[in-house]
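Q: What does the assembled structure look like for these inputs?
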Amino acid sequence: MSELNIKYDNDALLLDDVDYRIIHATQKGLPRTPQPYHFIASELELDAGDVMQRIQRMQDIGVIRRIGAVPNHYALGFHGNGMTVWDVPDEYAHDVGAQVGALDFVSHCYLRPRHLPDWPYNLFAMVHGRDRDEVNAKMENISELLGSQCRGHSVLYSSRILKKTGLRITERR
Amino acid sequence: MQKESSNTIKKPLSDLQKKLLNDFQHGLPLTPTPYLDIAKELGVTEDEVLNALTELQESKMVSRVGAVFRPNRIGVSTLAAMSVPSERINEVAAIVNAYPQVNHNYEREHVFNMWFVITASDNDQLDSVLKDMELKTGLSPMSLPMVEDYHIDLGFPLQWGEESA
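A:
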């Protein structure tokens, strides 16, 4: 395990304490009041314009991906939720990952290290469907797309949600 | 802990709720009155938007309305997996879930049957959580940190059936 390391970029260093306080105040969700940013601002004793500007900036530098409703796929009737995993030669992984990540039925697509001999898969694509047949059919689509660039794949279905909360940042050092 | 099978839709979604889910997954405006602005765009009142969102959240169809943070931009995270003997699942889940750094944990049908995400403020904290877990459970978590993210996040396309599922 040498080259495959956590890709960690230093954008976080561009955040100051006020940004972190805003992140803390919003990570459980935005208040459902007519002026949610004013509400947060008054809780943090900040100016509402400042809060919005900082959130905009965090969006611009990619710390915040989007602001919106986070759907619970399962409750919405997408009962499939299959984590498909693929063993793709490292030299193709980048191109293949970009193709798979662009598919509209893939909600997350990540390259991760293998953990040999127990775990040979390096590409993870979360596929959602109304049932397992639909997920399996979509997995076949990915399999065709990868063709000979795939040395093996599998799908892991979830049988139970054991814990699910939004991102929580604890104890900043 | 929620059993997935008990989590079915009890009440059909209203047209407004579908629109809120589809159109505003990634587009909550960053303005002083975002809910009013959405309401104007959809031709409804602010109260209707707020009530629809409250109902979506109470029925657990959306887990929250707010900012989605990009992994590894603030803090560091990893996807970890454990192979847990079936009779120990609940006991081990209780230990793993007790860490505030664990935000998702799924039981999956595989030899590696427990999959969870750990988010920590830095690599040292992440390592110490992994080591502490191993100590408390006697099981060794396999850590698979993200190397590259290929997902283009445009929200999730919710294709409603004709008779609206």
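Chain B has two domains: 14-68, 76-144.
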